[in-house]
Design goal:
It is a single chain. The chain is α+β, with helices and mostly antiparallel strands. The chain folds into two domains: about 180 residues, Chloramphenicol Acetyltransferase (2-Layer Sandwich), CATH 3.30.559.10; about 220 residues, Chloramphenicol acetyltransferase-like domain (Chloramphenicol Acetyltransferase, 2-Layer Sandwich). Helices cover about 25% and strands about 25% of the residues. The protein is built from ten helices and 16 strands. Strand 5 and strand 6 form a beta hairpin. Helix 5 crosses helix 6 and helix 6 packs across helix 10. The longest helix has 16 residues.
Length: about 425
């Protein structure tokens, strides 16, 4: 397609026929248990990883990456199976060994021609991840779909579509790094630990805490109307070390807090700004949900290489008026409490709560914060050196705010979110600190 009539460039990707890549050796068959922490986040996450080497072209990239995939699926064999429903009405994996879906593709341009590859962009980056045509529901979408796209400049990308019920961010990062290791003929630094039954609910279940993370919040401010009527704008905001230090000083200036983490202060700052930007009514309840990594918080801690979801949702709920009018320390203090809430007993109570109620967290009146800023996706190497960029293709849901790592500076965080146009203009002003 290349150039179009008026001389402006149109990015085009030609995809080959999808094939199945099976594990390189015979793997276990039968049903594979998913924990209650996996059940709650069965959404498709699309991520993309770019590679370019000065010394090696992309001629054999497809073959090399595909052979590596076949090898890593021996270790991560549940990903080669099929999602189905268990006799208890829960998601479970049927380990069929049918393999991951794999697509070879070619772009009509050089990598630099497609613009800023570090920002999620479902229209451009979406072309680099294969979507199963005609899939009606999650059970019809394979657990793992890979597209390798070659660019004219010798670069290539790996577009991955994976069901979140299989791996959380840390698990996905370990999977990608391990895939790179086997591709280069190296032993795995962190072999996967596959037994998720260590997070089985207790018998009988014990719900020891209120679980307001599942509460429905009434939208008295009619925000959903804004989302429907206005164009959604997606922007990212960089918080470097200096800006983060300023925010921490601001949060502690009234003496209410003696310390706060980068996550707590940034989450509090963004939560408040979003309430202001959407012009929420003072008595509009706002719920902030975010995932806490439970791997070390469980007692005993989850084994190294736990390949599943080791994250638990924790929450804060406050009136928008209080968030906006009170000092920053108020919002940050609420988040600090929410982080501390995620103890072994709270997390096991959440597992048991799902067992009894089968509740799904409601996203009405909610901000869902997802932190990728600590994930070392930049260490992935398939033989072309570490990835030059990686990240999500798009935000999974409208109320999601992503904290992403900065490519070069480990102490900086990129905050990415989408808002209706009128809200985004106000939010941009509030980000100028």
């Amino acid at each position: 397609m290349g150039e179009i009539a008026n001389g402006t460039f149109e990015f085009d990707v030609s995809q080959g026929e999808p094939i199945r890549v099976r594990p390189a050796e015979e793997t276990e068959k039968g049903l594979y248990y998913l924990s209650n922490l996996d059940q709650n986040i069965a959404v498709i996450i699309r991520t993309i990883y770019f590679f370019k080497s000065e010394s090696r072209g992309n001629e054999d990239a497809v073959e090399v990456v595909k052979n590596g995939l076949s090898k890593i699926l021996v270790y991560h064999y549940p990903l080669a199976g099929q999602l189905t429903i268990s006799s208890e009405g829960k998601l479970i994996v049927d380990c069929t060994g049918q393999g991951a879906v794999f697509v070879e593709a070619e772009a009509n341009c050089q990598l630099e021609e497609i613009g800023d590859i570090t920002k999620p962009d479902p229209i451009t980056l979406g072309k680099l991840v294969y979507e199963i045509p005609g899939a009606q529901n999650l059970l019809e979408i394979p657990l793992l779909v890979i597209q390798v796209t070659k660019f004219k400049c010798g670069a290539f990308s790996i577009g991955m579509s994976m069901n979140h019920c299989m791996l959380d961010g840390i698990g996905a990062m370990e999977f990608m790094n391990a895939w790179g290791e086997v591709t280069r003929g190296l032993p795995l630094k962190i072999p996967p630990f596959l037994d998720r039954s260590i997070l089985k609910p207790r018998n009988p279940p014990k719900i020891e805490f209120p679980h307001h993370e599942f509460d429905e919040i009434e939208d008295i401010s009619n925000t959903s109307k804004l989302y429907e009527e206005e164009e959604m704008l997606y922007k990212s905001f960089l918080f470097d070390h200096e800006k983060l230090s300023q925010l921490k000083e601001k949060a502690m200036e009234d003496g209410v807090l003696s310390s706060c983490t980068t996550f707590e202060v940034l989450a509090g700052f963004v939560w408040r700004a979003r309430c202001k930007a959407l012009n929420l009514l003072p008595d509009q309840k706002s719920k902030l949900l975010f995932a806490v990594d439970g791997r070390k918080r469980f007692n005993p801690p989850l084994p190294e290489g736990y390949a599943g979801n080791g994250i638990v949702l924790t929450y804060s709920i406050a009136d928008s008026g209080d968030l906006v009018e009170k000092p920053l320390s108020y919002a940050v203090g609420l988040i600090h409490k929410a982080v501390k809430l995620a103890t072994d007993s709270f997390m096991r109570s959440a597992i048991d709560y799902f067992e009894v109620t089968r509740a799904r967290p409601s996203l009405a009146g909610t901000v869902l914060l997802t932190t990728w800023s600590k994930l070392a996706f930049f260490t992935i190497d398939f033989g072309w050196g570490e990835s030059i960029s990686s990240g999500p293709v798009a935000l999974p849901e409208k109320p999601v705010i992503l904290f992403l790592p900065h490519q070069k500076d480990k102490k900086s965080v990129n905050v990415l979110l989408g808002l209706p146009a009128s809200g985004m203009h106000v939010f941009e002003e509030l980000m100028q600190i």
